[in-house]
Amino acid sequence: MSGSSAGALPPGRPSRQAFIHQESLSLDSSCFSSPPVTFLQELPSYRSIARKRTTILSRDKQSGTLLKPTDSYSSQLEGEITENLDNQSIRKYALNISEKRRLRDIQETQMKYLSEWDQWKRCSSKSWERFVEKAREMTAHLELWRKDIRSIEGKFGTGIQSYFSFLRFLVLLNLVIFLIIFMLVLLPVLLTRYKITNSSFVLIPSKGADIQCTVYPISSSGLIYFYSYIIDLLSGTGFLEDTCLFYGHYTIDGVKFQNFIYDLPLAYVLSTVAYLALSLLWIVKRSVEGFKSNLIRSEEHFQSYCNKIFAGWDFCITSRSVADLKHSSLRYELRADLEEERIRQKIAERTSEETIRIYSLRLFLNCIVLAVLAACFYAIYRATIFSQEHMKKEIDKMVFGENLLILYLPSIVITLANFITPIIFAKIIHYEDYSPGFEIRLTILRCVFMRLATICVLVFTLDSKITSCDNYPCELCGYNQKLYPCWETQVGQEMYKLMIFDLIIILAVTLFVDFPRKILVTYCSSWKLFQCWGQQEFAIPDNVLGIVYGQTICWIGAFFSPLLPAVATLKFIIIFYVKEISLLYTCKPSPRQFRASNSNFFFLLVLLIGLCLAIIPLTISIARIPSSKACGPFTNFNTTWEVVPKMVSTFPSSLQSLVHGITSEAFAVPFFMILCLVMFYFIALAGAHKRVVVQLREQLSLESRDKRYLIQKLTEAQRDMRNRLD
Q: What region does 590 belong to: left with phi over 0, alpha with psi -120 to 50, or beta?
C-alpha cells in the first residue's frame, strides 16, 4: 500500500483490505512454499480467502496497491505512525507499552532533523492536547450530580443511571435557554429599570389603534381573602400577572443606550428562534452516537442470544439485590426472545383465514385506540372552553376549591387522560398478537403521542377561542379582545399552570402513594392483598415520558412566559432529588430494564418528537394569530413575525435582494433537492458501513469455525497417538 493511502487511515484501525492481502499472501508464502498441510487447507477461513483471492489480486493489480509478500502489518503500521506523528498521538494507537516506547524513541529521533518551526508546532500541539485533557478532567469533577449519578449507576445499573443523566441534561438545557432569554430580553429591561446603566425606555408609538383594543384590565392586586396569594402563585394571576414572568410585562419598543437603540421586539423573536435552534442542535448532537449504534446493530437472532448470554452483564453493579434483579432481567429478555421466535414461527405457519382474522381484529382495536384518543382530545377541548368562559368571574363569588377547580380544569383533565390511557393501551395490546418487544415499542409510541398531543390540543383550543368572537365583532382588533385583552399572557398562564400542576402531581404521588405503599408492603407483608399489590416499580419509560411532557410545555410556553425555563430548571432539580429518594427508599427497579445505549437514543428520540410538536403551535401563534394591541412589544404589528421583514427593510438594497432570494421558491427548490441528494448519500454510506459490519462478523464466525476445526483435528491426533501407544 502506498504511503499516502496509509496515512489516510485512522490510528489503530488498519484497512480491511490490508488484512485480506496479508492473509492471502501469507497463505501463498506459507502454504505453497512449504510442504502442503491438508487440514490447514480445509479451514473455512482458508477456503473463503481462496475464493476471494483471485478477484482481490486482480483488482489490486489494476489499482497498484498490492503489497509485497515480505510486508507485514507491523512494518505497515510503523510506517503509517511515523508519517502521522505530526497529527496523531501515540497514545491513540492500540499497541503495547514496549511498541509505544519504541515509537516514542523514533519520534524523538525525528525531532532532531526537523526545522525550528516544525519543532515549535509539534511542541505546541502536544501542550495544547495536554491542556485540553487536563481541562476535561477538571470539568468532569465539576459535573452536576456526578457523585449521585455514579452511586445510582453502581446500585441499579446503567439503564436507570441513563434516566438521571437525561434529567441532568434537561436541567442544563433549560438553564441555557433561560440565559439566552435573560441576556436578550430581560437584562436590558432590568438595567434600565433599576438605573444601572445610562439608558431609557423607548415607548411604543401610537398608530391609531382603536381605544377598545388597548384596554387591558389587569386583575386587582388587593387581597380579599387570605388564599388569594396562593391562587395567584398557582395560577400566575394577580400579583404575578404584571411581572417579568409573562409576556404582557414587556410593553416597550426598545431600550435607548448612549450610542444605539436596542430593538426589544426583534430581540424577543430572535431569542425564541435561538432557543429552539439550540435545542434542536443539542439534541441531534447527543443522539448521533446512539443512532450509529442502533444503525449497525445486527438483526440476527442467534447473535442476540450470544450477546445476552456472554456480553449482557452490567459490570457497574455492586449490590447483591441489583445483581439478582439483573439476572431476572436477562431471564426475562431471553424469554421474550424465545416468545418472539415462537410468534415468528406462528406467523410463518399462519393460514390466510387466520391472517385475515388477526388483521381485522387489529383494525378494530386500532379504531378503539383512535376513539379513546378522540374522546380524550374532546374532553380537553370542552374543559378548556368551560375554564376560559368561567375564569373571569369575581373571586368573591367563588369558594376556594371552586376557583382552583375552574383554573386548573384543563390541567386536571390532561393529567387524568395521561393516567388512564396507558392502562387502556396496555390492555388492548395483549389482544393484537404482537411480539413482546413490539408490544412495548407500540405502547410507548401511543403514550408519547397521547401525552404530547394533549398539549397541542390545549394550545389549538386556546387559539380557536382567541380568534373566534361569537357575538362580538373580531374585525376591530383581529382577535377576541373582550375575553383575551392580552392573549399571549393568558396562554403563558395556561402553560405555567400545566408546569406547576405537573410538579404537584409528582410530589403528591411520591408522598401520598409511593411512601404509604412501601410502608404497607414492608410491615404488612403477611396480608395477601399487600403481597399482590407489591412494591412500586421504577418504570423508566413512564418517568421519561413525564419529564419530556414537562419539557414540551417549557418549549411552548417560553415565548409567552420568558421566565418559564427558569421555573422548569427548578422543577427538574426538585424532580431529580424526589426521584432519587423514591428510587432508593420506596421503589424497586422494573424487571424490564433498558440498556444504556438503547435508553439514551430512545430518550432523545422522544424529546425530539416533543420539540417538533412544540414548534407547530409556536409557529402558528407567531406567524398567523394577530398580536395583542394592549400589551407586549408587538402592539404595532399585525403579527409577531412582521418585526423580521421590518428589520430586513432596513438593510442595504443588495443585502435585501440576497435575503429575498434565499427565502424565495427559486432557492428553496434546488436547496431541497441538494438536501435530498445529501440524504441519499448518507443513506448509501450507512448501508456500506452496515455491509462492512456484516463482513467483519462473517470473519469472526470463520475464526470460530477455524478454532472448532483445529480443536477437532487436535483431538483426533491425540486419540490416534494414544491408540498407537496402546
A: beta
Q: Which residue's entry shows cell 435530498?
A: 676
Long-range contacts (CB closer than 8 Å, 24 or more residues apart) made by 125-132: 125/86, 126/89, 129/89
The number of angstroms, rounded, from the C-alpha of 342 to the middle of its chain's C-alpha atoms is: 33
pLDDT tens digits for range 194-205: 888 777 777 776
DSSP 3-state of 201: strand
C-alpha to C-alpha distance for 613 and 337, rounded to whole angstroms: 34
Contact between residue 547 and residue 168 where contact means Cβ atoms under 8 Å apart: no
Would strands 587-589 and 536-538 be described as parallel, antiparallel, or unpaired?
parallel
How large is the angle between the packed helices 436-467 and 487-509, nearest 10 degrees? Answer: 150
pLDDT one-digit tens code per residue, 12-28: 444 444 433 444 434 34
632: left (phi over 0), alpha (psi -120 to 50) or beta: left
Q: Which of 141-155, 556-570, 629-643, 650-664 is most confident?
A: 556-570
Q: Return the closest-CA partner of residue 629 out of 428, 463, 454, 466.
A: 466
Q: Using alpha carbons only, what angle is made at residue 514 by residues 510 and 515, rounded to the nearest 5 degrees?
A: 95
Tell me which residue of 589, 544, 535, 605 sits closest to 158, measured CA to CA.
589
User: Is the pTM of the predicted complex or chain greater than 0.85?
Assistant: no
Amino acid type, 682: F
C-alpha cell at 223: 387581597
Q: 71 vs 23, 64, 75, 76, CA distance in Å?
A: 11, 15, 7, 7
Which residues in 61-86 are b (16+ Cβ under 10 Å) and which e?
eeeebbbeeebeeeebbbebbeebbe
In this structure, are strands 200-202 and 254-256 parallel, antiparallel, or unpaired? Answer: antiparallel
Three-state SS for 588?
A: strand
Burial class from Cβ neighbours inside 10 Å (0-12, 13-18, 19+) for residue 370 reads: exposed
Highest mean predicted confidence (pLDDT) among 96-105, 231-240, 586-595, 651-660: 651-660
pLDDT digits (tens, 9 = 90+) for 485-496: 888 888 888 889
Mean pLDDT along residues 79-99: 59
Sign of the four-CA dihedral 149, 150, 155, 158: positive
Question: 59 pLDDT exceeds 60?
Answer: no
261-263 and 536-538 beta bridge pairing:
unpaired
Band of pLDDT at residue 86, cut at 50, 70 and 90: very low
Distance, in Å, from the CA atom of 461 to the CA atom of 463, rounded to the nearest integer, reads 5
Distance in angstroms (rounded) separating the CA atoms of residues 573 and 586? 19
CA separation, residue 250 to residues 45, 116, 203, 253, 267 (Å): 74, 60, 11, 9, 12
For residues 30 and 457, what is the distance between their CA atoms, to the nearest angstrom?
73
What gap in Å lies between CA 695 and CA 284, rounded to an integer? 29
Quickly tell me which residue has 418585526 as its cell. 643
| β-pair partners for 263 | 254
